[in-house]
Task: inverse folding
């Protein structure tokens, strides 16, 4: 356990591929503790400052990082759009990172360009957490998605999971798939419009890791087999060509009628925000796991910050 | 009457001999070196020569031209079996076996328009996935097949 504590200490979180099973399960156990008794940790990060630099809009991720830090007694500085910073005056990204690095003990970065968190980690002396870099990765979302499966389904290996939607541009899908290469569900269906299929490099990678998956275009073909349906929004903002977006807009929709044809205990997850791909009529049903999933964002990020910024001993984790 | 089995190419005094190039790749090697034929260099190109090791091979001999580290690295991508002999006064003074680099850093811009390196004005680093014959930008994760990657390098280096 002390080894695992040491592995997390002062660590960057750039990609799901940087983590192994022991580390993730350790993080999940601490998340359980945070959920059950966060008060025990309320002074853990007292005196520490987290810089939250969001160059792209966000609600859940930004606020859950803020809340996670505040619950551990730490403080938060930062911004949530480029317009409110010197970036709008033309400041280089690397200069902004250097400045924040001198103000804070850790940095959380969201940016529209791929590789931004990795570059920030090379510049900053303090740990950098990737909260989404373009269409590339969003590792802490994947961590909380996997944690949700542990918490609500008791594990991952026995599950038949469908991921539906924008598999081409959604960074949460990449990170989740990288995470699933570690936990290997029994069956994985990648369900999308042909124009939203998984990118070649991601497909090649997950294949090379022995993840069994099938690509299908119609959710109706597989709905009855699924234990979990993970729904994603079409990432309109990442389409290089608006005409391409028009072709796929509204191409899938998860409705009460569809879910009725699924298993009794089918769990529906969504990283949120949603647009029209997930019907609100499902919100009050036993299938809706997405609000619970979102609520795990704070304890999971608290656990992660506690591990990275230190203060934990083997006894309290 | 016997048929000449060997193609006689005269020795060079000072320069470089690139041997064991996979058959058919000699012109690509010349492209890496930016040699179009109009530079006034004395060059011998042998295509499909017999090779005990590979069956067939290409050879390029260039009088008065030596290779930079970058050029050697790119040649290693195109012709991983090549050997480079540096000739001084008709003697081989150095024999280099090329080995494809694992990393190519600071040579070219990432072709992905939404890679952060493009917007910070920095040259990126590519990791070479030799088993898959692909190059991957370590920042944005974009993967490019070797042949496209070589074209991008040559284009960006103005060759």
Result:
């Amino acid at each position: 356990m002390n080894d695992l504590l040491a592995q997390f200490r002062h660590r960057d979180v750039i990609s799901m591929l940087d983590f192994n099973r022991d580390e993730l399960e350790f993080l999940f156990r601490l998340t359980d503790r945070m959920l059950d008794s966060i008060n025990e940790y309320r002074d853990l990060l007292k005196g520490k400052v987290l810089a939250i630099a969001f160059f792209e809009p966000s609600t859940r991720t930004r606020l859950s990082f803020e809340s996670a830090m505040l619950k551990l007694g730490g403080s938060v500085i930062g911004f949530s759009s480029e317009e409110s910073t010197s970036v709008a005056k033309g400041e280089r990204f690397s200069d902004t990172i250097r400045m924040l690095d001198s103000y804070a003990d850790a940095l959380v970065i969201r940016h529209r360009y791929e590789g931004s968190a990795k570059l920030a980690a090379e510049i900053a002396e303090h740990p950098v957490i990737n909260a989404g870099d373009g269409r590339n990765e969003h590792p802490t979302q994947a961590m909380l998605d996997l944690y949700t499966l542990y918490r609500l389904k008791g594990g991952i290996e026995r599950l038949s999971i469908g991921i539906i939607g924008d598999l081409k541009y959604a960074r949460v899908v990449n990170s989740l798939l990288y995470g699933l290469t570690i936990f290997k569900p029994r069956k994985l269906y990648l369900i999308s419009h042909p124009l939203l299929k998984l990118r070649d490099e991601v497909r090649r990678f997950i294949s090379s890791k022995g993840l069994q998956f099938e690509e299908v275009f119609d959710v109706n073909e597989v709905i009855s087999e699924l234990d979990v349906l993970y729904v994603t929004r079409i990432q309109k903002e990442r389409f290089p060509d608006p005409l391409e977006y028009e072709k796929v807009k509204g191409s899938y929709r998860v409705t009460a009628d569809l879910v009725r044809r699924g298993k009794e205990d089918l769990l529906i997850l969504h990283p949120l925000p949603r647009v029209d791909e997930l019907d609100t009529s499902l919100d009050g049903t036993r299938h809706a796991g997405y609000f619970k999933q979102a609520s795990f964002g704070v304890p999971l990020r608290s656990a992660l910050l506690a591990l990275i910024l230190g203060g934990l001993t083997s006894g309290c984790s | 009457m016997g048929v000449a089995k060997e193609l006689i190419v005269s020795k060079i005094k000072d320069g470089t001999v690139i041997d064991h190039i996979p058959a058919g790749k000699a012109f690509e090697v010349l492209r890496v070196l930016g040699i179009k034929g109009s530079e006034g260099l004395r060059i011998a190109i042998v295509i499909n020569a017999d090779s005990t090791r590979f069956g067939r091979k290409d050879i390029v001999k260039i009088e008065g031209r030596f290779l930079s580290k970058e050029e050697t690295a790119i040649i290693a991508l195109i012709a991983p079996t090549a050997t480079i002999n540096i000739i001084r006064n008709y003697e081989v003074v150095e024999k280099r076996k090329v080995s494809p680099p694992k990393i190519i850093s600071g040579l070219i811009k990432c072709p992905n328009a939404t890679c952060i390196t493009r917007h910070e004005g920095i040259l990126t680093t590519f990791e070479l996935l030799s088993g898959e014959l692909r190059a991957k930008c370590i920042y944005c994760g974009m993967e490019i097949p070797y042949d496209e990657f070589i074209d991008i390098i040559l284009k960006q280096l103005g060759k």
User: Anything to note?
Assistant: The mean pLDDT of chain A is 94. The beta strands of chain A are 49-54, 75-79, 106-111, 128-133, 160-164, 187-191, 213-216, 228-231, 267-269.
